[in-house]
Design goal:
Layout: E1 2-6, H1 10-21, E2 25-30, H2 33-41, E3 45-48, E4 65-68, H3 77-96, E5 104-110, E6 121-122, H4 133-151, E7 155-161, E8 163-165, H5 172-176, E9 180-181, E10 184-185, E11 187-189, H6 190-202, E12 210-213, E13 219-220, H7 221-232, E14 239-240, H8 242-248, H9 253-260, E15 264-265, H10 268-273, H11 282-285, H12 287-293
Parallel strand pairs: 1-2, 1-4, 2-3, 4-5, 5-7, 6-15, 7-12, 8-11, 9-14
Antiparallel strand pairs: 10-13
């Protein structure tokens, strides 16, 4: 199988490595030279293109499957729309106009599309309820990935990632130093985020579907912080309720919105499809970070 990864960054590079290990051909698409160098370092072919620049997409190779994993760089809704909606649309139009378009498209979305559920469980059947301009953009992008791709003969799938963690993204200080606000953490290790996409492509599953990509155990933030502190051999951090943290008035608008949003994401669908996690919970996924912190 020939796979082209648009935005071959944090998850995409790991995905490329996994696909290459399975004997597939992989092209990683990045805008910057440093990004292209990183693609070549994992053994994939690097191609320079920018999803927000339609003219640049002529350089994309014909392919069997496209993974759209581009990032807006953590910026606002306008930047997100330019990448996730218009950039994705540009890629679909480019490939749809070719004589041999790809068979599959996987778009990497976020569990942020669910909004707040006051700690209740959500799954693929839960109605989407985005609460910010940016998450509303993500919902629109999901529609583009499925409906507009289908209109040009490409089967679109959506992988809704929970909070990514892994090498360079363990953020130990956030939980060891506190204060830690009550709520739930829905997480997936980078290796499993990539692994789930690889699995969906390899097994030819979830065409025209959305699948939650999250580990087995939504974690209570206070319990997670205490476990992490104990494992690292440091004092347990200060804890605050949501109400206490909001009343303190020291949160940015975005941070306050995150504090107010609580849900538990189910991976039953992904498990039922047959995916086996490398890191089923944070207890396995954080081991490398803990060992590094302790100097082991």
């Amino acid at each position: 199988m020939h796979v082209t990864v648009i935005g071959c960054g944090y998850v995409g590079l790991e995905l490329a490595g996994q696909l290459l290990g399975d004997g597939h051909t992989v092209v990683g698409v990045r805008r910057s030279q440093s990004g292209l160098d990183a693609v070549e370092a994992v053994g994939a072919r690097a191609v320079a293109a920018d999803a927000t620049d339609p003219d640049s997409l002529a350089t994309l190779p014909d392919t069997d499957a496209v993974v759209f994993a581009a990032s807006s760089g953590g910026r606002g809704a306008d930047a997100a729309r330019a990448v996730y909606v218009e950039g994705l649309r540009n890629v679909i139009r480019e490939y749809g106009a070719r004589g041999s378009p790809p068979d599959r498209l996987v778009y990497t979305s976020s569990t942020g599309v669910y909004g707040d559920h006051d700690g209740d469980w959500v799954d693929e059947e839960t109605p989407l309820d985005p609460t910010t301009d940016k998450t509303r953009v993500l919902v629109e992008a999901e529609r583009v990935a499925r409906e507009e791709a289908a209109a040009v003969g490409i089967d679109g799938s959506v992988a809704r990632f929970a909070g990514l963690y892994g090498p360079d993204r363990y953020r130990l200080a956030r939980y060891l130093e506190g204060p830690v606000t009550a709520g739930y953490l829905n997480m997936v290790h980078r290796d499993d985020a990539a692994g789930a996409v690889r699995f969906l492509l390899d097994e030819d599953l979830a065409r025209d579907e959305a699948v939650l990509v999250v580990d087995d155990e939504p974690a209570d933030k206070w319990a997670f912080a205490d476990w992490l502190a104990d494992e690292c051999g440091v004092e347990r951090p200060e804890k605050r309720t949501k109400e206490e943290r909001i009343a303190a008035g020291d949160l940015s608008t975005a941070a306050e919105r995150r504090v107010r949003t609580s849900k538990r994401c189910s991976n039953d669908r992904l498990r039922t499809l047959g995916y086996e996690f490398t890191h089923p919970t944070y207890r396995s996924g954080y081991r490398a970070a803990i060992d590094g912190y302790r100097g082991e």
